[in-house]
## 1
Amino acid sequence: MSTQSFAELGLDASVLAAVSAVGYETPSPIQAQAIPILLKGENLLGVAQTGTGKTAAFALPLLSRIDASSNDTQILVLTPTRELAIQVAEAFNTYANHFKNFNVLPIYGGQDFYPQLKALKRGAQVIVGTPGRTLDHLRRGTLKLNNLKAMILDEADEMLRMGFIDDVETIIAETPADCQRALFSATMPAPIRKVAQKYLSNAQEVKIESATRTVERIEQFVLPVYAERKLDALTRILEVEPFDAAIIFVRTKAETVALAEKMAARGHAVSPLNGDINQRQREQTVEDLKRGKKDIIIATDVAARGLDVPRITHVINYDVPYDTEAYIHRVGRTGRAGRTGKAILLVTPRERSWLKTLERATNSPMKDYQLPSPVALQKMREEQFESQLLGFTEDRRLGKAIALLDDIAQRNEMDMAMVAGALAAWMETAQPGALPLEQPAALPVPVPGARRSRDRHHRPGGERRGHRPGFKKGGASRGKPPARGGKRPPRQSDAKR
Ligand code: ADP
Ligand code: MG
């Protein structure tokens, strides 16, 4: 973090007041560098990883220059996804909290035109839109940019990746020639650089190096696991990790749904998040996660892009990402707003080359993730069962229940231990798994020494591999149990939650 203060940057007083109300102490490096440039009205090319505070880097200076007495659209921000449009619009609202007259409007596809039209007619000083819908409104004449003072391309590389670059260029061409322009991107591929050269004349370039920034506050773990054991591994991780909210990344949309169903069956408050789910539902899901109505989201990369929910303490890479960029974005979903986070990557023997690649990309080593041993897991489950049981000792129905059972015990000449045992067996019959009766089996984990025989055993006719370094030591049966959390155990007895 920079040693500079926000006050030294020359921001408008009411913007400064809002920033201190949100609780930011110092500007992040990209903010410290970008804010003075944008305040001067200059064009800017900003290259910085996800989670470095780019939104405030452009929102704060642009808000400082806005003419609050006019309802004309003065700032246009283009973002690749609807979620991001909403998030950036929310950020503008927060930072403009002390303005008397301020309107920001997110516009994106999948939402009815009519309410957008009404809102556009009323006038919004800031529009945050996805390229497609923004272009629609421009073509219909429902969005006017003739008084635009500044435009921002946020996550430009992602807009390129999603095929929006032509739309983006068309929109830029519609903005006034003297309009201030800034482009933010985590990477600078050639087509983005070309757009910058063409439309951002004399742009100042600000580059925040170090991919490590993103993962600084995030502890990264790796758990080697056989492909067919991933679900078991995930179940145990969620059982022992003291998470607040978790996001689990998978590769396909179908898998988000399938895995969410399995996790729900294990008693978790979980939702899938993918690009096929309708917009309202997706917004609802993010809202539910923010408010704690849901604790787990199973997501694809695209759907979770830019997701900013400070409650997320854990990122679990159930499937390995497609590239290192995706990995950095994924783990960046935790450790938000200065908190710490934990990222756990499941790697099958075939995917172990990812380890080195990711460690290089993030410039930080991954630790071995230790699943608890069956003995430790069993002990934990017994303790949890006990504490749940003790939770009922002051239940208001206790008096009547004891009277009833006492009567039964006396008439049948049983002691109360026998009655309690019978009740417990009944509970277990009604809800298998409600009682920790069986010690769980050890989860077979690929370890270097045992690799060959394990492979043969678990992947009949599977891949042939020699011993290659890459998988580090570690394994279910030798691990120490991680610290226990306050989370209730995801057991079937909890399924009604
Ligand atoms: P990026 O767009 O670079 O991925 P964001 O703008 O989404 O990053 O910011 C990431 C998180 O950091 C947000 O939760 C934001 O509120 C928080 N944040 C931004 N600037 C600061 C700051 N100066 N101090 C503390 N937290 C900040
Ligand atoms: Mg951003």
## 2
Amino acid sequence: MSRRTILAACQMGPLQRAEGRPAAVARMVALLEKAARMGASVAVFPELALTTFFPRWFHEDLREADHWYETALPSNETAPLWEAARRLGIGFHLGFAERTPEGRRFNTAIYVHPSGETVLKYRKVHLPGHSEYDPIRKVQHLEKRYFEPGDLGFPVVRAPLGGPGGETEANIGLLICNDRRWPEAWRVLGLQQVELVMLGYNTPSLNMENRGFEAHHLRVEHSVLSVRAGCYQNSCYAVAVAKAGTEDGHELFGHSVIVNPQGEVMAQATTWEDEVVVAEADFTRCELGRTTIFDFARHRRPEHYARIVEQVGSVAPPRWSPAER
Ligand code: CDV
């Protein structure tokens, strides 16, 4: 069985608040068609790909925000995406806001096999931002208001990708946006021999917290740095995909990347618009790191990692003082 396949990052340009799902889905179908023409077996779309990045808008009453969420997929409006995947024989990753029948709200991603079946579901664990209106911020980031932390952990599954022949399998894991900055999330995937991490993001090009200066170019640098480190330290590929451009006056950066298990950027988007970039993965390349420098079974020392799971915030260290004479 071949272990080679072509991965596609399907970056999306901005979606304005007034735009509906049909406009987003039509653009996604066009991106999927382009990815298929470029030989891809799997296409990765951004976080919350079906709407504008709505957590920048404050709703006092949560029910006013209900229209941003999906209650079932595929729906009538999103069905063309599933139909296109089946027609093209390509798998896809989709980020969306999920409202469950019990009324719970999650920032969710799924990997869908070309047959239309959902193979893997993940709910974002690391929710950035705040839950109440914050007058200090120029732009709100209300993910903690609109979502609860994911309750599915970080699952990995071995599953077929699509593409010509559809024969390539990979150990697949998902992260969402802010998760990419947390080494704990990558390591939990790495401990399950993940080979392909798919993740989408919506990241403002400026730090809006106004609690200190962050140089603008470092916003992109920190995103790419996090994905490269995650791939290298866990011997996996990643496709990290932006929703980019200016949404109702608010900039999100692009720079979607495909990264290999050595932590090298294999392909990078160059616009802040709808754009497809592809790179060939050879999953046998995940074995080098996994069997040498990051052979976890031989080298990890979990007896010294207790703080990672027992402690949440950092604590100040004891102060050294000179020995008494
Ligand atoms: N959607 C996100 O999770 N965005 C965060 C921003 C707020 C820093 C990110 O980590 O990119």
